[in-house]
Amino acid sequence: QNIVPTPVKIDLINMLSETGLQVIEATSFVSPKWVPQMADHTEVMQGINKLPGISYPVLTPNLKGFQAAVAAGAKEVSIFGAASELFTKKNINCSIAESLERFDEVMTAARAASIPVRGYVSCVLGCPYEGKIPAAKVAEVSKKMYAMGCYEISLGDTIGVGTPGSMKEMLAAVMKEVPVGALAVHCHDTYGQALANILVALQMGVSVVDASVAGLGGCPYARGASGNVATEDLVYMLNGMGIHTGVDLQKLMDTGTFICNALNRRTNSKVSQASCRL
Amino acid sequence: QESQVSGLPEYIKIVEVGPRDGLQNETVIVPTDIKIELINRLSKTGLPAIEVTSFVSSKWVPQMADHKEVMRGIERHPGVQYPVLTPNLQGFHSAIAAGATEVSVFGAASESFTKMNINCSIEESMEKFEEVAKSARNMNIPVRGYVSCALGCPYEGNIIPAKVAEVSKRLYSIGCYEISLGDTIGVGTPGSMKRMLEAVMKEIPLNALAVHCHDTYGQALANILTAIQMGVAVVDSSVAGLGGCPYAKGATGNVATEDVIYMLNGLGINTGVNFYKVMEAGNFICTALNKKTNSKVAQAAFNTGTIN
């Protein structure tokens, strides 16, 4: 909710770089008029330590943003699509088809610069405006973005309404169009379903999972409710399942503690909240 | 149909432990009339079993000192079970005198936990439970057995699945109709849940098993999903996620019934429970206790004014 000072952002990213995480989404090259919290995108991009072997993708909603990102040193970018027409209209004031045309400009420029592009699809398990979203629609948008050249498609349960049932159905449809090795899930924990949904995705062969340290980031559609799943809680589960992530949970927890202190807020990570000695 | 296709149980029995396990582990002592009101509201939701109170000495568990008044004061709806905890024969007789028609006994898969909790060994605790089970059998009173620390112990740390299987088998053999496997400190993950259930399922029939997951580390729903994928069809939960964790100050404990039902509904699994009525009961008790709900579904619904 509060705008975070640039040095704090840079410290956060630098700490995350020490945890073993291989991909850290650093900032967004979108106009500060729309997203004031990311107005310092150039300073952040230029201020962080870029460790070898770690990728620091940034959001680039259009060609202008892409160019600014590359000028600031970005080596990977992301574009944000959606499986809902209404959501796209409300968010970026155009249709899904028009948004894909805009992205195509970014794709062309990225290809020329040998910059990998990650594609996000929002509202894959439900839309705050349209409600239920057909799995076939998610598959259609994912397919288009993959065909345009995105190396990975991150499927986002934007309002966290999904359950293992809808996750399974959606993934089954998408996996007909996009190879599972190019898929990621981005689950929100607004209804407490995130880890169960992630578990189902893993069972179906997905091996890329998005998460946010300390569960930072509320849900703009349910004021006061939680949003992103906490990276600590995810890593705890994966560790317990014997799945290798390369992430040091203790360093991750320390990073979560840092950012929560800096923001003067409680963590959304249950693992962090539990201080049971085991 | 959806649940059949995916190999999950068609129906899952939810055992609501909020009024006992939940309220016992809340920081405030709840007035008797509030407890009774909560239980009466829960009785109208379709929940098939509601754990009402504990017939244990008020010296040890002051929060449950009003066990007789609660037992006698609640409405008894047909088709709903109202089990009560009875740690020993004395508690059992007291429960029956107050009108109980089902009882529970609480074992553990950890010697240290048993020692710290009830000051005896696992074997000694089983002898006490056997006395209860014998009397219960004579009176046709069903007995449910709990096994605490099934996925980890606050004192011993790791608990081996074979030990959980051994204790479960003992409880089943003395006559418990159902064994509820409890992740008492919530440290379990789908990995340890699977291993533990595999061991226990060698000794106990699937339809006699239940899971009682705590959400202290946020793992409860993933663990419950793992259990139901393995065929477990009885799940314990607590309205509004009542009941913190006594071993991790400030941390959460029981998984919220609302969140469990939301997941099961999404999976097309029948529970017989009216989701909205449970949310209302959760809202009632949180208002009465002046506390925030631990249910994420309730939090989201409260903030959007609707359920998606």
State the gist of this model.
Chain B: Its EC number is 4.1.3.4. Chain A contains eleven helices and seven strands.
Question: Care to describe what's here?
Answer:
Chain B: It comes from Crotophaga sulcirostris. Chain B: Its EC number is 4.1.3.4. The complex is a heterodimer of chains A (278) and B (308). The longest helix of chain A has 17 residues. The two termini of chain A are 34 Å apart. In chain A, β4, α6 and β5 form a beta-alpha-beta unit. Chain A has eleven helices and seven strands. In chain A, α5 packs parallel to α6, α6 crosses α7 and α9 runs antiparallel to α10. Chain A has a seven-stranded parallel sheet with strand order 1-2-3-4-5-6-7. Chain A is α/β, with parallel strands linked by helices. Chain B has one domain: Aldolase class I (TIM Barrel), CATH 3.20.20. Chain B is built from 13 helices and nine strands. Chain B has a nine-stranded parallel sheet, with helices on both faces. Chains A and B meet through α7, α8, α9 and α11 of A and α9, α10, α11 and α13 of B.
Q: Which bin fits the share of residues in helices of chain B? A: 40-55%
Mean pLDDT of chain B: 94
CATH architectural label of chain B: Alpha-Beta Barrel
What is the architecture of chain A at the second tier of CATH? Alpha-Beta Barrel
The helix/strand class of chain A is alpha/beta
Number of strands of chain B: 9
Radius of gyration of chain A: 18 Å
Main location (chain A): mitochondrion
Keywords (chain A): Acetylation, Disulfide bond, Lipid metabolism, Lyase, Metal-binding, Mitochondrion, Peroxisome
Domain Pyruvate carboxyltransferase (chain A): 1-253
GO molecular function (chain A): hydroxymethylglutaryl-CoA lyase activity; metal ion binding
